[in-house]
């Protein structure tokens, strides 16, 4: 049987659960830095990065070398049975990068959802409270608790019944769609008056820049107001930096740029350069609220993934990828704004560092989000050899998540394809 896209996708549909979606009808065979080749031999420029997982590129040589070295030692013991140095070393290195001038401790797990689940467990144990406040447009994962936090029913929770209780929804500030920072704070105060006493709220969970929700950037002033509100009520502030973390925004964690120190910070995605690793870092006394045995997992903090993450941190330092993220983000925003002058369908261009998006509207009318155009743009770009992702509550946002290591010529080629597609479709 030949292994081409058509036959492999037929096999996929016959054997993989329907709920596992797939954006592009492509089966990848190999990749290098910002390029992917499919099983038919076609080459694509990768502006998706495995959904923000490949800030250091596909198969960075230093990451692969670290993994190969670790494979020659051990691949698994379960850290709760026999510890290993890479886990400890990574916790030490992450603590240096998470904002906050205080003693920190870290839990390592495998996925972003796990990190968020555990952050809620830790917050509940530390405060003796059960309630959690999350925001409209939020995305925190697909497990049951994180689905309760996630502010989008379809497709993530459709048909699954009600999610765990004790989660309350505040309005995310979004000037573009008419929600001011004052309105957002007022919606939290309203929860305290109508749904749950502030004394029953363990944590407020927020993405410094919304990911799946549309790449809306929370301002420093809003984040600082949120920090003050939490402090006034004894509520923990949890920063979900799963997508913003690992250097995407121009600082290793986005909160560094927003002048806010969370009590707990979650991370995942690009921290290990494509290997499954995630975690929670926070104030030592908060992290230690759970007794031994209450945290962990069989594969949590895999030695292979820890070795990869330690290499990623070195790559960021040696290749100055934080500055590259800032420069790349500026280039992206400049080019997209130039396209916006030619195509009025681009109603907004925004971002923090290299976490950049453009939002599309019918004829530039901000009351008419154009999800159809976003879908066509993703499809047309793929036909031209460029992998894009859409997102947003209305499905009308194109997000740009190419590796920070992408060569300038390839970046320009990809952006030119975006321009060509807009000229053909808009």
Which class of the largest domain in CATH terms? Alpha Beta
**What overall form do the CA principal axes indicate?**
globular
Poorly predicted spans: none
What is the tally of helical segments? Answer: 14
Q: Give the beta-strand count.
A: 15
What can be said about the biggest beta sheet? 7 strands, mixed
Structurally, the number of domains stands at 2
| The CATH topology of the largest domain | Aspartate Aminotransferase, domain 2
Cα gyration radius (Å): 21 Å
Task: Tell me the fraction of residues in β-strands, as a range.
Answer: 15-25%
What's the end-to-end separation, in Å? 41 Å
Instruction: State the order of secondary-structure elements, H for helix, E for strand.
Output: HEEEHHHEHEHEHEHEHEEHHHEEHEEEH
CATH architecture of the largest domain: 3-Layer(aba) Sandwich
Helix content: 25-40%
CATH homologous superfamily assignment of the largest domain: Type I PLP-dependent aspartate aminotransferase-like (Major domain)
In words, what does this structure look like?
The chain has 426 residues and is an alpha/beta fold. The protein has two domains: 161 residues, Aspartate Aminotransferase, domain 1, CATH 3.90.1150.10; 245 residues, Type I PLP-dependent aspartate aminotransferase-like (Major domain) (Aspartate Aminotransferase, domain 2, 3-Layer(aba) Sandwich), CATH 3.40.640. Helix content is 39%, strand content 17%. The chain has 14 helices and 15 strands. A seven-stranded mixed sheet has the order 4-10-9-8-7-5-6, sandwiched between helices. A hairpin with a 4-residue loop joins β2 and β3. The two termini are 41 Å apart. The relative contact order is 0.16. The mean pLDDT is 97.
């Amino acid at each position: 049987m030949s292994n081409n896209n058509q036959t492999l996708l037929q096999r996929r549909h016959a054997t993989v659960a329907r709920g596992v979606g797939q954006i592009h009808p492509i089966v990848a065979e190999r990749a290098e830095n910002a390029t992917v080749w499919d099983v038919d031999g076609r080459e694509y420029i990768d502006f998706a990065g495995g959904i923000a997982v490949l800030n250091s590129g596909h198969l960075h040589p230093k990451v692969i070398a670290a993994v190969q070295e670790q494979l020659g030692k051990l691949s698994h013991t379960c850290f709760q049975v026999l510890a290993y140095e890479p886990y400890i070393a990574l916790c030490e290195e992450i603590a240096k990068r998470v904002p906050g001038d205080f003693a920190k401790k870290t839990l390592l797990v495998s996925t972003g959802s796990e990190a968020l689940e555990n952050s809620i467990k830790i917050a509940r144990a530390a405060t003796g409270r059960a309630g959690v406040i999350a925001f409209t447009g939020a995305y925190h994962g697909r497990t049951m608790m994180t689905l309760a936090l996630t502010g989008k029913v379809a497709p993530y929770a459709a048909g699954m019944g009600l999610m765990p209780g004790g989660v309350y929804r505040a309005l995310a500030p979004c000037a573009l769609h008419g929600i001011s920072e004052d309105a957002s704070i007022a919606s939290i105060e309203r929860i305290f008056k109508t749904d749950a006493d502030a004394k029953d709220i363990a944590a407020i969970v927020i993405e410094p820049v919304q990911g799946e929700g549309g790449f809306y950037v929370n301002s420093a002033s809003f984040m600082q107001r949120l920090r003050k509100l939490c402090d006034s009520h004894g509520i923990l502030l949890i920063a979900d930096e799963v997508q913003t973390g690992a250097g995407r925004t121009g600082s290793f964690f986005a909160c560094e740029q927003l002048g806010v120190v969370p009590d707990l910070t979650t991370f995942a995605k690009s921290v290990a350069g494509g290997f499954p690793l995630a975690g929670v870092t926070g104030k030592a006394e908060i992290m230690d609220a759970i007794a031994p045995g209450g945290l962990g997992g069989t594969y949590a903090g895999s030695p292979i993934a820890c070795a990869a993450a330690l290499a990623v941190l070195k790559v960021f330092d040696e290749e100055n990828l934080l500055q590259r993220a800032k420069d790349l983000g500026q280039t992206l925003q400049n080019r997209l704004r130039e396209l916006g002058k030619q195509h009025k369908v681009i109603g907004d261009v925004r971002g923090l560092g290299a976490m950049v998006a453009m939002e599309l509207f019918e004829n530039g009318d901000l009351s008419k989000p154009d999800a159809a155009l976003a879908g066509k743009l993703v499809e047309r770009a793929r036909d031209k050899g460029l992998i894009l992702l859409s997102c947003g509550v209305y499905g009308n946002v194109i997000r740009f998540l190419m590796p920070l290591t992408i060569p300038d010529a390839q970046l320009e080629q990809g952006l030119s394809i975006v321009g060509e597609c807009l000229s053909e479709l808009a």
